[in-house]
Amino acid sequence: MSAARSRHDPLVTRARSAHPYGLVVNRLRSANPYVVDSALAVLVLFAASLQWMFPDEGDDRLTLVGWLLGAGTAVPLIWRRRFPYATALAVSTVTTAMAYYHAPPPDVPYSGLVVLYTMAVQGLPWQRRSMLASWLLGAVLTMQFKEHAQPFEYAFHLTGMICAYGLGVLARLQRAYTAAVEDRAARLERERAAETARAIAQERARIARDMHDILAHAVSLMVVQAEAGPVVVRSDPARAEAAFDAIAASGRDAMNQLRRILGVLKEEERRSGATRLPQPDLAALPSLVRQVSESTGLRVDFRICGRSRPLPPDTEVAAYRAVQEALTNTVKHAYASRAQVELDWKENELTVTVTDDGTGPARPDGGHGLIGLRERAAACGGSAETGPGPEGGFRVVVRLPAGADREAALG
Q1: Which H helix or E strand runs over 57?
Q2: In this structure, which topology does domain 282-411 adopt according to CATH?
Q3: pLDDT attached to residue 57
Q4: Do residues 410 and 403 lie in contact, with contact meaning Cβ atoms separated by under 8 Å?
């Protein structure tokens, strides 16, 4: 995050404004830098002129040359933030000229203190060090050979310069720390937004897969019954009536399941705390198999091998949808007369196998339904295989973790 952006960040602005000092700093930083530094240059020039305007005994009186040299140390401060090192060199050069021509700088080197602070904040490492060493050495030489200063004056001037430089270092470290904190907060916010976007995309993909499975299954059953209805409507009215009843039942079941899925998108239900019906699970498989058999005339055998046990909800939904999608493809594409659904329970795995005696799916890739089936299995840490069966027909095999290996598979 850039320094300009961090200065205008609303959270940072409110935090700094909570304290009067922070309010002043915030206003100064948001003001035009040339206006602020011009005012600083005028203030430095005024302070430097005081000892000549109101001299004590033995002090030099104000002269034009002395004032111009004093102005030469103050005016470059206007560009101290734009060109910090050039400003420091200009101020240092004019200050050296004042010392050499015995137009001594003020009792307090105001321009020098501002320059040292600015270099400590903005200068490169070698610029900061060289400038601090030059000013300390120049002050010592000036007091030694030009001013014949007393010992306490050495301590006063050198300590003042070191303190100004130290304040600049602290300001630089504080700005770096603030920038790092703000950058980290912005990065966490971006990661949080990305995680939310991923969660939304996954939820939308899940809803899309559920809607596809429900609609494909229900529509396939209704199409089969609708095609059979006109054929038997005159010769076998009872069978035709049963076919139309099956169409209506399939439509109602599809509508109920769609309402249940789309309920997650309704803000009103979330606010009111309305409960949604549970997603289908393995216990609903016998009902699904019976529905397909009665509605389509396809003979479906259902078998369970091993000891069944509860699974996580997403795994049970994946197993149910796998059987639903496989039977839907059998009804739509396989032209089969018989199918078999088998649940094989093992210690750490549930294998769901659906086979038929038909000619296989019309599309080689199995369409979007089988792709969604693979995605469901992968989301639960499992896998899915589709292809011709060992004795002809088409086979769908889904392997889902059913024990301690589930976490490892997902990890």
Answers
A1: none
A2: Heat Shock Protein 90 (3.30.565)
A3: 52
A4: no
